[in-house]
Amino acid sequence: MRGLITAAASGLVFGIGLVVSGMTRPDVVVGFLDVLGTWDPSLGVVMVGALLVHAPLRWLIERRRSPLCSDAFRMPTRRDLDARLVVGAALFGVGWGLAGYCPGPAVVSALPGGPKALTFLAAMLAGMVLVHRVDALAGRPLARVASPERRH
Amino acid sequence: MTIQALLPPLVGGMLIGLAASGYLLFNGRVAGISGIVGGLLQRRTGDRHLQGAFVIGLSGAGLLLAPAAPEAFVNPLSRSTAALVVAGMLVGAGTRLGNGCTSGHGVCGLARSSPRSLVSVLTFMATGAASATAVSQWLGGGL
Lengths: 152, 143
Known about the structure:
- The complex is a heterodimer.
- Chain A is mainly alpha-helical.
- Helix content of chain A is 63%, strand content 5%.
- Chain A is built from 6 helices and 2 strands.
- The radius of gyration of chain A is 18 Å and the shape is globular.
- By secondary structure, chain B is mainly α.
- Chain B has a domain at 76-143.
- Chain B has 6 helices and no strands.
- In chain B, helix 2 (33-40) crosses helix 3 and helix 5 packs antiparallel against helix 6 (115-138).
- The relative contact order of chain B is 0.11.
- Classes of the chains: A mainly alpha, B mainly alpha.
- At the A-B interface, helix 1, helix 2, helix 3, strand 1 and helix 4 of A face helix 1, helix 2, helix 3, helix 4 and helix 5 of B.
């Protein structure tokens, strides 16, 4: 139960951060990605702010034996590069540049953002399910990158 | 752009970093939104209760802030339904194929110096810039 509350609180703070940063406004996102227009550096500043806080904190946190409300850290362990990673990132980027929504802002904006945000979110969920289905048909379990990791 | 205008993105970004740190410290998981949402759409059990709680908090932020700051959710871009559907499908399929998005790779992965995340971020930044620039340069900003 405690874990559910901390997960919900993390989601809430994450969402507030997205709204405060301007990332729920697709014009701000496109203003960053459109490098030949009136360039808006906001998105870059958001990433810098997030990394300034998270990089040192995650280093400290991952020195712990285990998280506070769960038995083990479950972190991505893969370090190899494959075509799937690059193709996926490339497709994601194209869609992101077209609409100005990435997954976080799409979820945050779904209810207050009107029909455009809701349409985008529904299509995004469909795209995710499509990949799951194709993977299942091909007999591939979804590429798992996270595994329980023991430390010390 | 003034220095003051950079304060909201900086503070917002720091909140995102704080939230990712909280999810790691308390729940031991990476705060990657596409992984969390995608996990909820799979039959596999395990993390689904945590993922559900995270998504409730995330969409709760929108509901909570919308009355106070409705302008934060305005989408002034001219996009047809078809364009939104294509873009959404690309984002959904692409993030599942590539195991992450702006949060999982862009914040959590870069913070952990993951080579996969660095390649992912460079790739989606490049193709994102290409598609956004193409729309504004060749299609007059509408789609």
